[in-house]
Write a structure and sequence with these properties.
The chain folds into two domains: about 240 residues, Rossmann fold (3-Layer(aba) Sandwich), CATH 3.40.50.2000; about 160 residues, Rossmann fold (3-Layer(aba) Sandwich). The chain is an alpha/beta fold and about 425 residues long. The chain has 17 helices and 14 strands. The longest helix has 21 residues. Helix 5 crosses helix 9 and helix 11 packs across helix 15. Strand 12, helix 14 and strand 13 form a beta-alpha-beta unit.
């Protein structure tokens, strides 16, 4: 496989962090709130916050590589300009507002028509034509606003790093299943030649939609800042970008009600944004179970570093996600050596493949969840064992040098295969566990 002196990468994703927001002219979200009211949609948080920390992580790794010329293309809500471009730390950034595309989803219910009228598509095409990248790397195919912009960009190799597979029974069975998201993902997958789906479960789902694409090893990572140790105020914490059922928020409250019978002073900290009506429902649920003094609600943190500092106030992480293969919050807690209690999924069971790193309860079984919480509260030696094992796991998973090398080798192999038909080296391809 040849080594290219310089690869120009168009990195297409949907993300936000505090550093890029300093460069973005963002509105007060009054128009956003008005539009939600106009369409009779539930009220949501209007604060801006960090989104998709793994994207920030990959950008940080790639910008440090001497042979990568990086162009990041993204969308951001509340942007007051039609296009905002800037250079920061050697990376070229292009941001476009996504509010109109979001509004159109509530007006146009035909997926093909919405995709055709997506206002981000011509903007991204102009940028791609301008920068002339050697490769396009799309992070996540399920967000139609930005992901749909790469459909039909011929003549440039495209690799997609999948965050999930939206066209699967996991999502089709849900009440909020979005046909536009599913349509755009299928459009991306149907002619895709290069992909990274690095779990057996998601790979099986992908193969139902695409039988031939090369599947690359490509690990997600996370920017995990150093934090200071803090006095413990809570026994457990559940945190996510948005509070919802699939992140286990109602289950966490119900489990605390059981734990309270033995530990009357037990405290749970619930952190997250999302729909105001949903948060109020959770507060009413806690109150109805006599947990007014046991469950403490915290607002969504705009900066992830503030979130990670705040969770140091908790002894343990209660993260009963129901659908995620492995939630990023579970790995984040493990990195900070906050012992984790979570539900069994096909992914979380792999966390204990070599050593026990988390305590697992049967999925959606609140009594078992409470039993694991009690076991953690009662067994100091087990807690220390989980901390040690989680530290070892995190050291393997968040290996920056390995992850950076993997991305660059993948890009080179894709370009060489696309241009010259050179076979993809076996060591770069994901091997399904038999």
């Amino acid at each position: 496989m040849p080594t290219y002196k310089l690869i120009r990468v168009a990195f297409v994703c949907h993300f936000s962090n505090a550093k890029v927001r300093e460069h973005l002219p963002l509105d007060s979200r009054k128009v956003y709130s008005f539009i939600r009211t106009l369409f009779r949609l539930p009220a949501k948080d209007t604060t801006y916050g960090d989104v998709a920390a793994w994207d920030s992580y990959m950008i940080e790794l790639l910008r440090k590589q001497d042979n990568i010329d990086l162009y990041v293309i993204s969308a951001h809500p509340g942007l007051k300009k039609r296009m905002c471009s800037f250079v920061m730390e050697g990376v070229h950034y292009y941001f476009m507002p996504c509010d109109v595309a979001t509004m159109l989803k509530h007006v146009i219910h035909n997926p093909a028509l919405w995709h055709k009228l997506n206002p981000l598509r011509p903007k991204v095409r102009r940028i791609i034509n301008e920068i002339k990248p050697d490769i396009i790397a799309l992070i996540g195919a399920e967000n139609p606003h930005i992901a749909g912009t790469v459909v039909g960009l011929d003549g440039i190799p495209l690799i997609v790093k999948c965050q999930t597979i939206y066209n699967s029974s996991i999502y089709t069975s849900r009440s909020n299943y979005d046909k536009i998201n599913a349509y755009v993902e299928r459009k991306i997958f149907e002619k895709l030649q290069y992909v990274s789906v690095d779990t057996d479960m998601h790979f099986r789902m992908f193969r139902e939609l695409n039988k031939t694409a090369y599947n690359f090893n490509w690990e997600f990572g996370n920017l995990l800042p150093e934090v200071k140790l803090q006095n413990k105020e809570y026994d457990f914490v559940n945190f996510a970008m948005a509070m919802c059922d699939v992140k286990g928020y109602p289950d966490a409250i119900e489990a605390v009600a059981i734990v309270k019978k033995k530990y009357p002073e037990v405290k749970l900290n619930l952190i997250g944004g999302g729909l105001e009506d949903y948060k109020n429902m959770l507060k009413e649920k806690a109150s109805s179970l006599g947990l007014d003094d046991n469950v403490v609600f915290s607002s969504f943190f705009e900066k992830q570093e503030d979130l990670f500092q705040h969770i140091q106030k908790s002894r343990f992480a209660l993260l009963p996600c129901k659908l995620d293969y492995i939630s990023s919050t579970q790995r984040q807690a493990m990195h900070y050596q906050i012992p984790v209690v979570c539900y069994k999924t096909e992914g979380t069971e792999t966390l204990n493949a070599e050593k026990e790193c988390v305590l697992l309860a049967e999925n959606s079984n609140v009594k078992d969840l409470a039993a694991q919480m009690l076991y953690m509260l009662d067994n100091k030696e087990k807690v220390e064992e989980l901390r040690r094992n989680a530290k070892e796991y995190s050291a393997r998973w968040s290996n920056d040098d390995k992850n950076a090398k993997q991305m660059v080798e993948n890009f080179m192999a894709v370009i060489d295969n696309f241009r010259n038909g050179t076979p993809i080296p076996d060591h770069l391809l994901y091997q399904v566990t038999e």
